[in-house]
Design goal:
Strand content: 15-25%
Radius of gyration: 29 Å
Largest sheet: 9 strands, mixed
Number of strands: 16
Length: about 425
């Protein structure tokens, strides 16, 4: 609701022209009146003549002419499959100098496949693609508590379902969560069976500002209630104190080894999610953010591939040839963003030992003033771990530099920036 209602370049030019024309007409009308009076004409007659001159000089047909021309542009765009909601957008689209794009589902296929799992200090490659549970998890054992619990957390801390039909599998929900269901299926875990043995009691839905989702489950009888937690690596590590091992024992969490594994997965262009769990008293019936603010047990990581769309790579090349800058905005890890940015041809080159040297994160943006952000945003092509309000701030910063900014995205978290652009 706080987004500015910006004028487009065309409406600004028309407004500027109108003001200039207004003062020119008033000046000419005034000169006509003064000249007539000085020549001995009656003041009343000269006043009427000046008013007639002013009325005659005002181009009443200009708004209609502009509207007709823009409507013709809308018609041409419609013939090419583009829907225009506001007439001035036709002209503004042609003047765009920067395109800010969401990554997942816009620049990438949004067909996620888990290809690696890290649990119990070991990495397990996962074979198979698509949404059929066809494939294997290397080194999988039903006795590996860390690996099995990682799969279970991804399966139950989940609001998505997959339906099979003659035309293949249909995902109802989020493709990322669908990939977790498929991975669990490769480990022999079925959603219906696990949901019966660990029924869900309450949920904390995923929100961009929190970067996690959590669910509360009943283990039966007087057993403690079990919380499964799924989210960004940062959200898990800042709350986790212990780490689950393959034999079921707990050890103090080692953040550095986990971050090293995250970076290894992310450098291959994988999107990384972290899993954790926690037990709460048996009488707990509701789950709050305070309940998962600390004392979590880190379980494991899942790395999934979401390849760039071939047509997106071609589009980026076309925009660069046209002199239009393309900036990718994502909530993913900075290393993953850098890898995908390089594949898309955004000019990202990893610095020695610092694969994210050309990536700005949401945390970086928080530390920058508006003036500093304006100067750095112009030269940065990839933005990672960005919250919805930061997307909005980025668009506003680019507009402050005089850029005509286009925004594209398919999620509710893109909405503020979409409205501002």
């Amino acid at each position: 609701s706080e987004a500015d209602e910006l004028a487009t370049p065309l409406t600004r030019k028309i407004a500027s022209f109108s003001h200039l024309l207004l003062w020119a007409i008033l000046a000419l009308a005034g000169l006509t009146f003064i000249a007539g009076v000085m020549r001995g004409e009656k003041a009343a007659d000269m006043f009427m003549a000046a008013v007639a001159l002013a009325v005659g000089a005002i181009p009443e047909g200009l708004p209609a002419a502009v509207t007709v021309i823009l409507a013709m542009g809308v018609s041409r765009m419609a013939a090419r499959g583009a829907i225009i909601r506001k007439l001035p957008a036709v002209e503004t689209l042609g003047g765009a100098s920067v395109i800010c794009s969401d990554k997942t589902g816009t620049l990438t296929e949004n067909q996620m496949t888990v290809t690696a799992i890290f649990a119990g200090g070991e990495s397990h490659p996962v074979s198979g693609t698509g949404y059929r549970p066809e494939g294997t998890i290397e080194g999988f054992s039903a006795h590996d508590q860390a690996l099995r619990t990682t799969l279970l957390a991804g399966l139950l801390c989940n609001d998505t379902s997959i339906e099979s039909s003659e035309n293949g599998e249909k995902v109802i929900g989020d493709p990322t969560e669908a990939a977790l269901i498929v991975a669990a299926g490769k480990g022999g875990l079925r959603l219906d069976d696990q949901a019966r043995s660990l029924p869900r009691i309450d949920t904390l839905p995923f929100e961009s500002e929190h970067q996690y989702m959590a669910t509360l489950h009943d283990q039966g009888g007087s057993n403690p209630r079990l919380v499964f937690f799924k989210g960004s690596v940062e959200a898990v590590l800042e709350r986790a104190v212990m780490e689950l091992q393959s034999d079921g024992t707990l050890q103090p969490v080692d953040p550095e080894s986990i971050r090293a594994e995250v970076e290894r997965l992310a450098m291959d262009g994988m999107r990384v999610l972290a899993m954790a769990c926690k037990e709460l008293p048996a009488q707990t019936s509701t789950l709050t953010h305070q309940d998962v603010s600390s004392e979590l047990i880190f379980i494991g990581l899942t790395g999934m591939i979401d390849p760039p769309r071939p047509e997106a790579v071609q589009a980026v090349q076309a925009f660069h040839r046209a002199g239009v800058k393309v900036k990718m905005i994502t909530g993913d890890h900075a290393v993953t963003a850098a890898a995908i940015g390089a594949q898309l041809g955004l000019g990202i080159e990893a610095c020695p030992g610092r694969p994210t040297c050309q990536v700005m994160t949401g945390a970086d943006m928080t530390r920058l003033s508006d003036e500093e952000l304006m100067s750095k945003a112009a030269d940065t092509a990839v933005f990672a771990r960005v919250a919805p309000d930061q997307k909005l701030r980025l668009v506003m910063a680019l507009q402050s530099l005089g850029e005509v900014v286009a925004m594209t995205g398919d999620g509710v978290n893109d909405a503020p920036a979409l409205k501002q652009a």
